[in-house]
């Protein structure tokens, strides 16, 4: 483990499965690193700027699951397992599509755009 961290095992219930990591000073001047002070919302915003299709995939997944739960009431004679399988496939399809678009966008941004647009500036 890194310097300044200590592992303490919780002996109340299955100590080998749940170690508790305690935080101590990272340096001698009592300052924490920036990663530890970052909130969940600011981390999500930062990651969204890096890969903008992740929040789109999350929103699509939540939308498909919400719609599936709403339609669960009006499924008529369709079996429950078949309805759940269809909703799972739709939600996974939306997420895979968003990830694929994100990868294509990253490839364009990192490889294609610099190659073609940097030559025209020369």
From TrEMBL:
Presence of the UniProt keyword Transmembrane in the record: yes
Record localization: Mitochondrion membrane
Principal localisation: mitochondrion
Pfam families cross-referenced by the UniProt entry: HIG_1_N
GO cellular component terms, A-Z: mitochondrial membrane
UniProtKB keywords: Membrane, Transmembrane, Transmembrane helix
A biological process term (GO) from this entry: mitochondrial respirasome assembly
Domain annotation HIG1: ranges: 25-117
Top-rank taxon, per record: Eukaryota
Transmembrane regions listed in the UniProt entry: 53-70, 90-108
UniProt name for this protein: HIG1 domain family member 1C
Organism: Sapajus apella (Brown-capped capuchin)
Gene designation: HIGD1C
């Amino acid at each position: 483990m890194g310097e300044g961290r200590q592992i303490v095992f919780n002996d109340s219930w299955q100590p080998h499965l749940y170690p508790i990591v305690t935080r101590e000073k990272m340096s001698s001047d009592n300052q924490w690193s920036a990663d530890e002070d970052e909130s969940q919302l600011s981390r999500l915003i930062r990651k969204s700027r890096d890969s903008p299709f992740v929040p789109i995939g999350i929103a699509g997944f939540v939308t498909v699951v919400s719609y599936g739960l709403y339609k669960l009431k009006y499924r008529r004679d369709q079996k429950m397992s078949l309805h759940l399988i269809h909703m799972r496939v739709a939600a996974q399809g939306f997420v895979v599509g968003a990830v694929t678009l994100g990868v294509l966008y990253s490839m364009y941004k990192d490889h294609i755009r610099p190659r073609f647009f940097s030559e025209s500036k020369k």
